Protein: histidine kinase
Organism: Thalassomonas haliotis
Amino acid sequence: MTSSAKIKSIRRNLLFLISGGVSLIQIIGISFIATSFIENAQKNIELETRYSAETIASQSISYLDANDHDGLHDLLLDVKNIPYISYIHIYRLQNSSEDIEFFTSYNRDENFPAIPDKIADIDNLATTNYTENFLELIIPIKQQKVYGYLYIQSSTEQVKDIIQNTIIIAAIVFTLSLCFTLLIILRVHRMITVPIKSLIGTVQDISQHKNYTLRCQDMPYQELDILSRNLNIMLSRTSKHITKQDNAEQQILKLNHELEDKVSQRTEALKESNQELLSTLEKLHQFQGQLVESEKMASLGDMVAGVAHEVNTPIGLGVTASTLLSDRLNVIKEAFENKTLKSSQLKKFLNEGQENVAIVYRNLNRAADLISSFKRVAVDQSSEQDRTFNVKELINEVFLTLAPQIKQKPFELELNCPGDLVVISKPGPVNQILINLIVNSILHGFEGKEDGVISITVMNLSGQLHINYRDNGVGVSQSIKGKIFDPFITTKRGAGGSGLGLHLVYNLVTQALGGSIQFESEINKGVSFDIHFPVVKSAS
């Protein structure tokens, strides 16, 4: 709806537009005529001054030649009949030299002092020079040769009078034409607004009383009459439409009652269906939680199997070495009892026994380290409590627990982490995140590749632990790149892949650690995960 502040009156617009336009045209026209008239007046007085100067100059030649000052002065007195000439100077050129000297002059008003000679301005006043109250001109007095110079000064009072009269006449003409224009505007305004007010009154009456049977009267002007007829046509159609609308509203009310009954019946049915859907959805959430926990346990089970296999090797070597040592001990004991023991035999036994004991010691330590690392990883995975830990040692423990899976493949692990980075956070989720990412790279990223590199870079910046995980595997296709963290998204469907690995990683980062994770990938260039979560840096 148009704001009332923007609505303008037709009368005001007509007044401003027409009077402004006419005034502008009048000002331009009067200014042009007045300027032309004034310029013509200036040219006329300039021409008259030059003509008078030339006439006096030609008459002065004989007096200059005869050196008759009085005669020339009497001649100049006749100039009083020319009202605009104020001063005349006659300068004579001496025959013996090129010097110019004052000869005689004319001054119209004897009460005014004579003006100084203009000998120094002969060159500057060769053309007419206008000042505020007069114009000046110097012309040579010559007839085959130059006898001297004539200086003439004419008053511009006549031009000023012409300008003043012209301004007065222009003001009178402008005022009369503006008044005439205003009368025309008022007449045009009355011709237009009276019929329009009639239309407005009819429309307002229809609007206030909603009586669409009223009709607009005929208008005296064609355009307004066309508007009146079209308004009448619109009113007729509106009246018919309202009648149809009333009938339709009655029909709609009837249909609404029928629909309300149907909606009530359907609502009851929907309530029952919604209850069943809510129950099914709750079961689905429980099932998804169970699947996530199963994924965690499956990851832990894979580690258990790998660690068990890894522990079997040093224990087996320790058993073999201890069995061999036991056999050698029995031989030495038998030789000692039979008193057939030789020093060389005893020396050999001691050397071999020392080697076997060293073998047993190294392998038992190896098994103990594996079991200790596995215990810490297993405890961390089953706990989400904050504790103080060394980040590099934690990641090395993860590498150690995954060693059985990694060493069977031609893959390399690279770790860039400060050795003294000790923080307070939840090590369990960090363990699970790294294990899932490494296993995901082994199963998916390096599929069909003969080698690969997994690089992990860790930094602590502004109370945030930044972990960049990167591999140079096959990457992720565009079809699943945007939903890589969604549950049940996998490229190993039907081949053992659950699609919960990266979903579990996302939940651990965002919920357990309160951080964020970003993912980038290019085909055949691998993947990159940027993980950020808050930690407290420990001084120890």
The mean pLDDT is 77. The longest helix spans residues 222-337.
